[in-house]
Write a structure and sequence with these properties.
With 217 residues, the protein is α+β, with helices and mostly antiparallel strands. The protein is built from five helices and seven strands. The termini are far apart.
Length: 217
């Protein structure tokens, strides 16, 4: 005489069936090979630390320099030092040179911890306009179009926001060391949010011809 097997409770039958179907359908095999998913993405704060005050009586001017943080431009307040006797006599070019030197400096340790960097190459200099250039032109020691796009964006937006260099809102006129005509670049919201997308070549700027006086009759 056969012994009757204990009956499986009815509530457990669907659960057992589901578990078997899930095991058969997933098709995932166990592996002992470690999988490297990479480090967790890090976020930068882009908080601008307080800048120490300048020395009393030291020559310089306040300015907002554009550094790179989180793949975009972020303005950082600076007291930009300017030499009393520089090699450039033009006041606009002298101020532009001081801003370039500030952009070329490596951000402080506190700024680097907050995510700030700069792409402006060391040794870049600013000079006075050539004969025939429009007023306010800044001549760089390298062609602007040969600079890295991010560096060009930093320079354009820093100069555009400086009252010492720019007469007001509008394009920045830059040229290179050769006789090529200067070109104009604008610091737009698109350039600030995506500095790598700045147009390589700006628009050629020609000096505005002065009106010829009418000879008296």
């Amino acid at each position: 005489m056969r012994r009757a097997l204990p009956a499986v409770p009815a509530v457990l039958v669907p659960l057992v069936g589901i578990a078997l179907l899930a095991t058969a359908g997933c098709g995932i095999r166990a592996t002992t090979v470690p999988v490297d998913v990479g480090a967790a993405p890090s976020r930068v704060s882009c908080d601008t630390p307080a800048q120490p005050g300048g020395q009393s009586g030291a020559p310089g001017f306040p300015a907002t320099v554009e550094l790179v943080c989180g793949s975009q431009l972020v303005g950082v307040e600076r007291l930009v030092p300017m030499a009393e006797k520089g090699t450039v006599r033009d006041p606009v070019a002298q101020a532009a040179q001081a801003l370039l030197e500030t952009l070329e400096r490596t951000p402080s340790a506190e700024e680097r911890d907050a995510g700030f960097t700069t792409g402006v190459p060391a040794g870049l200099t600013a000079g006075a306009p050539k004969a025939g250039d429009p007023a306010g032109t800044v001549r760089l020691s390298r062609k602007p179009e040969d600079l890295p796009p991010v560096a060009l964006s930093q320079i354009v937006c820093t100069l555009a926001g400086s009252e010492t260099v720019s007469a007001g809102p509008g394009p920045v006129v830059l040229g290179g060391p050769d006789a090529d005509p200067p070109r104009a670049w604008e610091c737009t919201d698109a350039v600030r949010s995506r500095p790598e997308s700045v147009p390589t070549l700006g628009e050629i700027v020609r000096p505005t011809p002065s009106a010829t006086p009418t000879p008296g009759r």
